[in-house]
Every structure is written in C-alpha cells, then in structure tokens.
TrEMBL record:
<dbReference type="GO" id="GO:0009279">
    <property type="term" value="C:cell outer membrane"/>
</dbReference>
<dbReference type="InterPro" id="IPR019734">
    <property type="entry name" value="TPR_rpt"/>
</dbReference>
<keyword id="KW-0677">Repeat</keyword>
<feature type="signal peptide">
    <location>
        <begin position="1"/>
        <end position="27"/>
    </location>
</feature>
<keyword id="KW-0802">TPR repeat</keyword>
<keyword id="KW-0732">Signal</keyword>
<dbReference type="Pfam" id="PF13174">
    <property type="entry name" value="TPR_6"/>
</dbReference>
<dbReference type="Pfam" id="PF13181">
    <property type="entry name" value="TPR_8"/>
</dbReference>
<dbReference type="GO" id="GO:0046813">
    <property type="term" value="P:receptor-mediated virion attachment to host cell"/>
</dbReference>
<dbReference type="InterPro" id="IPR011990">
    <property type="entry name" value="TPR-like_helical_dom_sf"/>
</dbReference>
<protein>
    <recommendedName>
        <fullName>Tetratricopeptide repeat protein</fullName>
    </recommendedName>
</protein>
<dbReference type="InterPro" id="IPR050498">
    <property type="entry name" value="Ycf3"/>
</dbReference>
C-alpha cells in the first residue's frame, strides 16, 4: 500500500533528554534503550526502560517508556498514556510527561494539543534543551497532525541551549524531519549533513538521507545512500526497510522479499514491528508471508489496524465476507481520523465482490451502488493504494485467480515452465514461455496471471500489457482487457511507435470497439488513431465508417 511503501523518517528519528545520572552503567542503559529504538528493536527498548523504572521509578524514566509506545510503527496511545500519567504521579510538574500526554492528543487528531505543547514550553521558560527538543519531536511525529514551523523554532532554540556543551545528533535528525514536513528538502538535507559527523552510528543518518532522496523521487541518489548505510552497519534494520521500499517501487519483488527477511533478522520480535513487516509484505504482493506474520501476532496487538490489514489479505484471497467483517471491525474500533480514502476504496471493492453472488435483486443493486460510490471516493482522493478500475474489472469479469488458473487446461510445456519460474521468479524468459504455453493451451486465466507477473518484473516492457489485454479479452473480461490495452498504449515510448504500429493499431481498435456503446467520443478518437497507424486494417476501417455515419 502507497502510504506504507516509502519509509517515513520520522519513525526512526529519535532522541534523548539530557539527563545526568551518578551511576555511569545506569546512564549506559538509557543509551542502550535509545539505540534499540533507533534500530527498530522496540521490544528491547521497552525491556530497557522497564528495567530502569524498576531501579528508579522517576518521571523521566516513565516518559522514556511511554515515548517508546508512540515511536513504534503503530502508536499504542493507551500504553503511552498510562506511563505518562505514572510519570506525572511521580512528579506533577514533569514537563516531559505533560508533553507526552499532549502528544497523545495530537496523535489522535486533536490539534488543540499544539497550543498545549506551546504553553508547556512557555511554562518551562525555555531553559531546558530536552524539553524544547521533545516538544519539537512531538510536533513532527504525525504525518497529518503536526506543526513543523513551530518545531523548527523549538529545535533551533534547543540546539542553541545544547551548544554550550555538545549538540546531540538527534537534534539535527528531528530538525531534518521538520523541514521535510515543511517541504523544504534543501534545509532537511543540511540538517542531516550536520548530524553526520556527530552520529555514533552513521548508518542511521545515511538511511534518513536515503529516504529523503526517495521522497524527492531521486532514486539513484537514494540507493547510493541506503547502500552506504548498509556498508557502514550491516545490522542496522531500518536501512533494509528503506531498501525494501526502494525495490517495491521498482517492482523488484524478490529483492524486496529478501530485504524484508533481513529487516526481520535485525529488528526484533516486538508485535508492532512485526505488524509493520506484515504491511510491507502486503505492499510487495507477498500475501502468503503477510498472512503468516499477521496470524502469528494478531492476538498480541490491540491496535485495530490489525483488522484492516487482515481485511486486505482476505480481499486478496477473494474472501469478501471475511474481508467485510474485518473492515467493519476496524471502522468501529479505530478513531475516525484513521480511516483513509484507500479504506473507502477497499470497502467498495468488497461490496462489488459481495454483489457478484448476491441473489436478492435489491441487495445486489445496493451493493453495486455502494461499490461505485466508495471506489469513487478513493479515486477522487487520487489514492493509488490499489488499481481501482482494474480491481473492479477483475471482480466483475471473474477469473484470473490462482484457483481459476489451476482449474484450467495444462500441458507438459506449462508444467515444465512452471518449475523454472518457481525456481527463479525473476527469470523473464521462463515467464514469457510460460505465458505463451498457457495461451497455446487456451488457459487464458493462466496467461493473464503470468503476463501480470511479467509486467511486474519488467514494468516498462509494453508488450506484456498488450498480451495481458488479449488474454483478458479471450477470457471474456472485456473491462480488464480494455484497461490492459490502454496501459500498453501509454507504455509504448515515442521511439518505439514505429516498431509497434500494427499492435498499437489493434489496441486502439480494441478499446474503441469496447467503448463504442459507452463513450462514443472516445471510441471515435481511438478508432481514428487505429486507422491512422494502419490504414489497411479492415476491422478498424469498418468500425470507423460505422460510428461516423
């Protein structure tokens, strides 16, 4: 899913209050906890801070533990609140824990918390760099509820206070995050560059720089920075998460799967970290691994997002009733601010799936109307979590599921090429031969699925989309065929038009033919382009004459 494809740097930019302890080993334990959070080892961090509380139940230690629950992939507001309240019980004037509670409000969508944070800083008289830092951190933590201008202001003051001794690298990390939210990438990069010589683990900084390049869609620079992170510290888990996002962008599914395996290896077994991994597996279209991880942790996490992810997995398996039940659970339990346009779109697709088997005419009509309305909301929001039109076309047209492929005809050639593809999913030659073997056997669902894998492996290779359209058309799914043909047309580069003239002529004709009873203007435009490309193509010539009478 797009909102989880690009690793958000705010999830890994961490810091620590400047706290002095008489016992050096105890201070080292604090640093261990901070390092664990920075490495996405939240279970280890929680163990560290819980141990610190057991030794000395101070307000600051309760704050560190509570803050860990806010920094994990999906915040646990209840656990965070509990610890911040315990911190205030230990010291009712604790500015850190006051900021913690205000951060919870902000995370839940209550923007009045921004003014609260501002007042807490004012009450502290801006004397403590740690309070200024934590206030700024809170104002950069949430993608939709933040105040980066105020955060920059607080961070500059924190850096000024801390400069009397030594500015911690994480002050600059968070300053970079604030500038990212302000959409000032140059200043963000400068802040990360300032952090680089101060950071004990430079992999942390290189990863942030890499994700900043990704946000700017400068992919080669992003890859270079992420590679530097891994070469600096091959055990730094967030670098592999960033690399997975990079490979998912380039639809390098096998590489992304290996990145996620490495991320799992170097992060820890904290259920919320595992939830992040399950989401990334889903984004990588690795539904089996996503489901396996989700099943393992489902009862260990309280966050209702688990129902949403399970709904997506159910949908991918064609289990529409189960998908609806889980999505309904998410909507009923989650804060309304957490329901995204993509969730509306998924509910629309689920309704379309349920409509397929509904026998009551009134209920069927209502489900179809719901599908159009909710998918329309996702498309209006320009959400690209799923290919909404293609997903709807696949539901309405049926087929193309693995079960449909297995139920179709096979041949010795199919079985042979299936083994080659299973041994190496990146073997484009084997995929090409398997797709053609399915077509020779008239197993059109098999051809559709295989050409889809080919286009995922080679997204810029236009013929895969044309072949997928042809297979969909032969399978009787005209809506999906039309979408595939249009993808072929848009993927052919100008320099390739001459070599693809005849194929383009057919694609334009096919779309025109399929649109002639729905969108006559578009059909006229497309058939004219078909004739222009190949004036000898008689089917296009006849259709052109017919619809221009």
């Amino acid at each position: 899913m797009k909102d989880i494809m690009i690793m958000n740097v705010k999830k890994i930019a961490l810091g620590a209050s400047v706290v002095f302890f008489a016992n050096f080993a105890f201070a080292q334990t604090l640093q261990d906890g901070i390092n664990s959070m920075d490495s996405d080892k939240f279970a280890a961090a929680k163990t560290n801070f819980t141990s610190m509380i057991a030794k000395e139940p101070t307000a600051e230690n309760y704050f560190y533990l509570g803050n860990t629950f806010l920094r994990q992939g999906e915040p646990d507001f209840a656990q965070a609140t509990e610890n911040f309240n315990k911190g205030l019980a230990a010291d009712k004037k604790s500015y850190l824990n006051q900021i913690g509670l205000a951060t919870v409000k902000l995370g839940k969508g209550d923007k009045s918390a921004i003014a609260e944070i501002q007042k807490i800083v004012s009450d502290s008289r801006e004397k403590d760099a740690a309070v200024l830092f934590r206030a700024a951190e809170a104002l950069t933590l949430f993608e939709k509820n933040n105040s980066p201008d105020l955060a920059v202001q607080f961070l500059n003051k924190a850096i000024e206070r801390a400069s009397r001794k030594e500015v911690p690298a994480y002050y600059y990390y968070t300053l970079g995050d604030a500038y990212r939210l302000k959409r000032v990438p140059g200043d963000a990069m400068t802040a990360y560059d300032n952090a680089l010589p101060l950071a004990k683990n430079k992999a942390s900084v290189y990863t942030r720089i890499g994700t900043l390049w990704m946000a700017a869609q400068q992919w080669q620079q992003a890859k270079t920075s992420i590679d530097k992170a891994i070469s600096t510290d091959a055990t730094y888990a967030p670098a592999y998460k960033a690399l997975a996002a990079y490979n998912i962008k380039y639809q390098e599914n096998a590489k992304a799967t290996q990145d996620l395996i490495n991320y799992t290896k170097y992060a820890d077994e904290d259920p919320y970290t595992q939830l992040e991994i399950a989401k990334l597996y889903f984004t990588n279209e690795d539904y089996a691994n996503s489901k396996a991880i989700l099943d393992k942790i489902f009862d260990k996490i309280d966050d209702p997002i688990k129902f949403k992810l399970r709904s997506y997995v159910n949908y991918a398996d064609g289990q529409y009733a189960e998908a609806k039940q889980n999505m309904d659970s998410f909507v009923s339990k989650a804060d309304k601010s957490r329901i995204q346009p993509a969730d509306q779109g998924l509910m629309g697709l689920i309704a379309a799936g349920l409509a397929k088997t509904e026998t009551d005419a009134a209920k069927k009509s209502a489900l179809q109307a719901e599908a159009q309305q909710k998918i329309g909301l996702a498309k209006a929001a320009k959400d690209e979590t799923l290919k909404w039109d293609m997903e709807l076309a696949k539901i309405n047209g049926g087929g193309a599921s693995q079960a449909a492929v297995n139920a179709g005809p096979t041949s010795p050639e199919i079985e042979s090429f299936k083994k080659l593809v299973a041994a190496n999913p990146q073997d484009s030659d084997a995929l090409y031969k398997l797709a053609n073997a399915y077509q020779d056997a008239k197993n059109w669902n098999g051809a559709v699925v295989t050409w889809q894998k080919m286009s995922t492996l080679l997204p810029d290779w236009a013929p895969a989309y044309y072949s997928q359209g042809y297979a969909y058309q032969q399978a009787g799914n005209n809506d999906a065929a039309k979408i595939s043909y249009e993808k072929f047309i848009s993927t052919v580069k100008p320099a390739e038009v001459e070599a693809n003239k005849q194929t383009l002529a057919y694609a334009y004709f096919a779309v025109a033919y399929l649109e002639k009873d729905k969108d006559l203007a578009k059909a006229k435009d497309y058939v004219a382009k078909s004739v222009q490309l190949d004036p000898t193509y008689q089917d296009a010539v006849k259709l052109n004459a017919e619809i221009n009478k």
